[in-house]
Amino acid sequence: MSSFRIREKTSDDSTPSETKGYECLCIGSQNLGTRKPIIKIKVVRVSLHRVFTLSDNFLQIFDSDNLQPIPNIKLKNVSTFGISNTSDQHQGGYIDICVSTKRNKIQIYRLDKININLIYEISVQDSFISISMDDHGIIGCSETEYFSYDSLNSNDRRSISSFTSILKLDDPNTTACFTNISPGQYLLNGPNVGVTTSLQGMSQRAPIMFISSPINFIYSHPYLIVLVRDYIHIYSYLDDQLKQEIPLKYCRTLLTMQQENIKNIIVTNKDNIYLLVPLSLEEQIEQLLNSYRLQEALTLAESTCSSIKQRNTNRLVLSTKKRIALIEFTSMNVVRALSLFDDINLDFHEIMTQIPNFLPLNSPWPNIDENLKNQYIQWLNAFCDYMRKKSAEFSRQSDYYPALLKAYLIVTSREIIIEFIQTNSSYIPVDYCKILIDAQHYHATALLYSAHEKHEQAIDIWKKLVSNEYSNDETFPGIWIIAKYILERNIDRSLEFSIATWLLERHEEELALKIFTSKYQSESNNDPFSSKQVINLIKTHPIALVTYLEYAVFKLKLETDEIHTMLVNIYLDQILSKSDIDNEQTRSKLQAFIITSNSYRVQTILNRINQTNRLQREVALLYGKMNKFEQAFRILVDELEDFEYAENYCIALSQGKSSDDRKIVAHVLFKVFLNSLNKYPNEIKTALLRLLCNNEIEFDFIEVLQHLPSHWSLASLSQILLRALRTYSYTQRSTKIESSLIRVQNEKLNIKLRQLKCLNTMINEQRQCKHCLQQFYETSCVIYQDGSQVHVHCAKNYNRN
């Protein structure tokens, strides 16, 4: 692909049409008054119409309209210079010039129509061979190093250290040169690479790999024109690839010249001056499209936009996308084509017209070979995706849903059909269920029935899928979907119960239990999910029965002796059917339930447990439940020798009881411990001391101290005595505080009574009773604290009620 055309400028090129905008090309051999050849020239046309020439370290400025020198504006000892590339933006009619002098100074001048004024200067260590500037700052290079000056952050630093080194050249064969890419961004020449950098020496862009070492280069969006030996290489700055190679021997200089919106490139060798004319973007894009380099064409078109927002409205970008989309569509790359059509908002009817015999659903494929049939299917897949993306625009069209669903059925994309029906089922008539069944989309049919409140039909299809009456539908998630369907909806309760029963029959006990528990409402006989009916149904399923009974007891809080006794018996069955090693967890559940439950038949359970000697602890717990505390504690202490468990059971029995009742339970255990003291002297003594020091258990310590063995030392009783003293002190203080509070309350009441007696209360015929709203005819009345008055008999009746 050609990006530029080169034209040779000779002495015969004299017509006005060819020379317009290129006056600077004639300067080298006319009346500029220079004693040596011009080594650098720049043109500023838009605002000031000036030509700058540098020869023999002498910077001279000419009027570009008549090529006459500007009087009194000249600079000496200049080694190189640069002009701000934002000069045309100044409305005040001036430009900024940056000059590197032979005295290692960088001078900034401001030039207007008549005068040139020095703004400031900066000392540098080495003389620069090239320099450039813009509103962001200055960049320059010596023969071995690149420097930058950030004008925005360095206004107060104009010493010799003002310029920052950003890159050093260690290779003497590498020419130091650079070009401006964008404001504040530059491309520096390195060893066979171009390094993009900012004035701070940072960049996120990877270097450009040059094929040959550059002598010089210039950036002209979006290309980099690189001058190498005997050639001009043109790289695309969009993908860093070499795009064009122009043979040209003995090239010496590159010069840019802005003409309206076109940046022309002037190239010189020892004999001629050449004008490098860029082709229009339209021509370049046309070349790329003709050679099927579609992405390059689109990237080139988009490079003209400074933001993504502009790409959506740019005429060149939109026309390029449409051209690329048509090419891709013709090549059956429909995914890419429809994506581009989507970007340019092309209606789907226009796309449908591109495909003949659209959606042949009513008959077999009309004499189409397999390759073309596969193309149809490929197109339909992409068409479905495109329709879904544009649903907000297309869904209002009458043929949107029929066309899309028919397309889905042809490409047999079951997952997409399921998603489509779940999302848009309200727009699809129930008549489509027959079409879906004929296409063997059974799960999709059930979903469509469900959306139209046809619950029995939907569940019937799922049941047939479970029983394999319908098959070959891999989208059916499994039997759990039926339970989920029942749980998420409030439909006929008899239907719900029948489905739960069906699940139970298919040994899906967990799913059935979820329905039984979540649909429970009351214990009414009319409720199919009452606990009595459910228990009768699941009696033959032991695991489900235990789970449901635990739910009824602990979640529903049903306090029926039948349910509680049944649960205890099931625990006992599980324990007695296993060894002691395997039933520890079940025994823990049984013991906790015996302690907490108050609704099972205690005597019945006790009679059954007494038939075996394996459950002595449970016997003790049942005696405690019957308030036979002494028998319970004797089993725990004398037979099981579990003193700590006896203490914990004492705490459990005391829960919810009054202080006197708690003391009764505690003293029973205390006496049982004393009776066993001779049998286990050390263990019982330790257990007694721990029991008496337990703050969760209440004692009458006067009685306790009277019964403790007299031979126990005071040291061993110190903690007990300390607790007894604290308890007695607390009781005394509490009694005194309570007595004082009562006395204060009585005093307040007496004061109020005296105040009421001293008040004069006026009763007349206009006053009304607060309760009956009748007038007073007697002299006696009752006065409330808020001052309201009522009849005596009304006050008695009100207080009685």
Automatic annotation (TrEMBL):
The UniProt keyword set, sorted, is: Cytoplasm, Protein transport, Transport
Species in which this protein is naturally found:
Rotaria sordida
Query: Where does it live in the cell?
Result: Cytoplasm
Q: Where are the CHCR repeats?
A: 519-678
- GO cellular component terms attached to this protein's record: cytoplasm; membrane
As given in the record, the signal peptide range reads none
Q: Upper lineage ranks?
A: Eukaryota, Metazoa, Spiralia, Gnathifera, Rotifera
Q: Which PROSITE patterns does the annotation name?
A: CHCR (PS50236), CNH (PS50219)
Which named protein is this?
A: CNH domain-containing protein
Annotated CNH domain residues: 1-261
Q: Name one GO biological process term.
A: autophagy
